[in-house]
Amino acid sequence: MSGSTVERRFENLFDGLFSRAFTSKLKPLQIGRKLLHKVDAERTSDAQGRRVVPNRYVVQMSAYDREGFADLEPALIQELTQAVREYVRQEGYHAEGKVRVALRTNPDVRKGRVEITTENADVVEMPPPIAPEVVATTTAAIVEPVITGEPVVPAAPKPVASTFDLPPAVLTLPTGQRVSIYEGHYIVGRNLECDIVISDGNVSRQHAELVCAAGDVIVRDRASTNGTKVNGVAVHGDQLLQHGDVINFGTAQVRFEKS
To answer: For the range 255-258, what are the long-range contacts, defined as Cβ-Cβ under 8 Å and sequence gap of 24 or more?
Structure first.
């Protein structure tokens, strides 16, 4: 199936939510089309014959252009992510885990232009913190270093952190499980297809959504049966989360922490 259906979705969307006049020449539709072309360009085949594509897409633009999207950035990330996921599914491509889209400012990108980089990132759920191990020293033997006269080889520098390496936030679910929240869009609900699954009868199949952009995370209810609350107050529209907030999806309580 071609990408024409997804591109029409972009056009219909931007005729509505993103139809306002932007200060830059860069338009959301341009970003969406370039993302789809990037998915195709990065396609490879694996040993099983599957057509594999990256699972992370970083949209880089000038500071001027990004500022033009400032008030709509969460919605833009959400729609771009959903459209790329839909395109991957329609084309029968394979990606490890959930596909994510993030925005980044790059001073080397000219106004009105966009560059897209990709990576295959492993999103690992963060385990609960473990107390540091106490090392006994009373009976340990002291070992003197051996002087060999050979030059000391400095340790190799640590690799530069990937765009998605450091999560802006972490959720602690009712089970105690800790889930990293990176740049992108997440669906929270009981359905096993959700990005964040909460197995609770009071949680709707697709209960709420989280959007992480520029280090901030918002929560938005998806017309759930039992509602979403932050610190006991019902969420209506977009709610910006603060460190230590307690989110209730129905009766399921989740703690939010900023990194």
So the answer is: 255/171, 255/172, 256/169, 256/170, 256/171, 256/217, 257/169, 257/170, 257/171, 257/172, 258/168, 258/169, 258/217
Among residues 212, 234, 233, 232, the alpha carbon closest in space to that of 221 is found at 234
- Give pLDDT tens digits for 216-243: 899 999 999 999 999 999 999 899 999 9
d(CA 181, CA 197): 13
Q: How far apart are CA 227 and CA 155, in angstroms?
A: 52
Q: And the tokens for 137?
A: 């020293």
pTM of the predicted model as reported, rounded to 2 decimal places: 0.61
Alpha carbons within 13 A on the beta-carbon side of 64: 11
DSSP H helices, the chain, are: 4-16, 28-41, 63-68, 73-91
